[in-house]
Design goal:
Blueprint: H1 3-14, H2 42-45, H3 48-51, H4 57-70, H5 80-91, H6 104-129, H7 139-151, H8 176-179
Helix pairs in contact: 4-5
């Protein structure tokens, strides 16, 4: 390649590269995007803590957008009122972060106690109206069941009839006297 061809190639490729003159600025990217938003008037921001909940949602959104645009400038250029309003709107006790009204915990505890009390009354009321347990749910009946199973050699490998069995078998209930059950065969 001759030097003239190289020179022509270099000049032709330079035309594809972006050029910036003294008056021309480089293209703006999202990281270098700078806005010069005007300061928001003090009457607009005055008492925002008291007015925020009562403001219509559209007005809240507009004010937040103005503050958001304003926060894109250097933080030192913002007024103290704008800084306070931006912080309060972003982190203040409103909406889901609102403080609970006085007496709310008292109501929660009272309603919970009432629910537990009502459940206890229903439980004991239903159990007082229920029939007594059947006679098969007594210690005496379950001991007789154990003896019957031993006599029949039920489960001789590892159960109640096996050698050296030390479990309690089918006994799981209190005696008939303790439960107030009669063992008469009247049923």
């Amino acid at each position: 390649m001759s030097s003239s061809q190289i020179r022509n190639f270099q000049t032709s490729t330079r035309s594809f590269a972006p050029t910036f003159s003294a008056t021309q600025q480089p293209p703006m990217t999202s990281q270098s995007h700078v806005r010069s938003a005007h300061a928001i008037s003090n009457p607009t921001l005055a008492g925002i803590e008291k007015r925020w909940e009562a403001m219509p949602p559209q007005e809240q959104a507009e004010l937040w957008m103005q503050l958001r645009d304003r926060m894109k400038v250097d933080w030192h250029e913002m007024t103290l009122q704008e800084k306070k309003a931006a912080w309060w709107i972003a982190f203040g006790p409103h909406g889901p972060r609102a403080e609970t009204p006085p007496g709310e915990w008292t109501k929660v505890w009272l309603y919970t106690a009432a629910g537990v009390g009502l459940s206890a009354v229903l439980f004991f009321g239903i159990h007082s109206l229920a029939r007594p347990p059947p006679r098969t749910m007594t210690k005496e009946w379950q001991e007789a069941t154990n003896e019957y199973l031993k006599a029949e050699k039920s489960n001789p490998i590892y159960g109640i009839s096996s050698e050296g069995y030390s479990g309690k078998g089918h006994i799981q209930s209190k005696s008939a006297k303790a439960q107030g059950i009669s063992l008469d065969a009247e049923e």
